[in-house]
């Protein structure tokens, strides 16, 4: 069996953004947000259901997942493989945009519903040791969540290091799936008895994909590879330039230090025969420097 990488934008959208498999997204959301039983998500409506995009559209399209539940709350899920900087600001932007878009001009603010943002990152941005962190707006004095309409969850994949035998929650299984599905040659036993996972593995089995999907998947993989190489090249150039500048500055600094030291040596030899002002005039040293030598 050959499985696609779930972290690929197209594969990710195909898994979690298909109207015919909404229960997969529901399982993932419930495992991440860890709701109490009465809050558990039972149904979602996808704002941007999966469709095979055209290659020209990919330059402008962001293939994230956006859905809402029966209460009108919004869920945004984004997979980010490369650290392009300011991801925390982007998450704030996406969340606030989704929040204000609920309310047409002149409507009652009480109609606004909560927005949840879930960012799955293939890099680290926070200092916490756990692979998942939850961010709320909390009153600094009372430590209460008085402003409840924004909630952020970030999953930092490099911090997840569990093996198959160590998976002890549904969330663990989802994160392991995202990290390792493309390396599997068969569906692990830990996933076979759970419908959502079995279907997720079926979806990423590339033998079931049509030619257009395979073309887009390969295009995205190559595009990502090119971007990574471009970043590495830029980093190497920056490092090389920094080294060259460092060497140049070091040489200049060394020459300046040598000249300064020579001035001090000359001044020391003149201390017995000339006054401070004259030594300063002859060597270029300040009078206070000459005084210190004396």
- Oligomerization: single chain
- Main sheet: strands, sense, barrel: 6 strands, mixed
Structural class: alpha/beta
The main sheet orders its strands as 1-2-3-4-6-5
Order of helices and strands: HHEEEHEEEHHHHHH
Nearest-integer average pLDDT: 85
Describe the fold and architecture.
This protein has 294 residues and is of the alpha/beta class. It has two domains: 9-209, no CATH class; 235-293. The chain contains nine helices and six strands. It has helices at residues 9-16, 22-33, 87-100, 170-180, 189-192, 195-203, 211-270, 276-283, 287-293, and strands at residues 45-46, 65-68, 74-80, 115-121, 132-137, 147-156. Strands 1-2-3-4-6-5 form a six-stranded mixed sheet, with helices on both faces. A hairpin with a 5-residue loop joins β2 and β3 (74-80). The termini are far apart.
Write the layout of secondary structure elements.
Blueprint: H1 9-16, H2 22-33, E1 45-46, E2 65-68, E3 74-80, H3 87-100, E4 115-121, E5 132-137, E6 147-156, H4 170-180, H5 189-192, H6 195-203, H7 211-270, H8 276-283, H9 287-293
Parallel strand pairs: 3-4, 4-6
Antiparallel strand pairs: 1-2, 2-3, 5-6
Helix pairs in contact: 8-9
Keywords, separated by commas or semicolons:
alpha/beta; 2 domains; 9 helices; six-stranded mixed β-sheet; single chain; 45% helix; 294 residues
What can be said about this structure in brief?
With 294 residues, this protein is an alpha/beta fold. It is built from nine helices and six strands; from the N terminus they run H-H-E-E-E-H-E-E-E-H-H-H-H-H-H. Helices cover 45% and strands 12% of the residues.
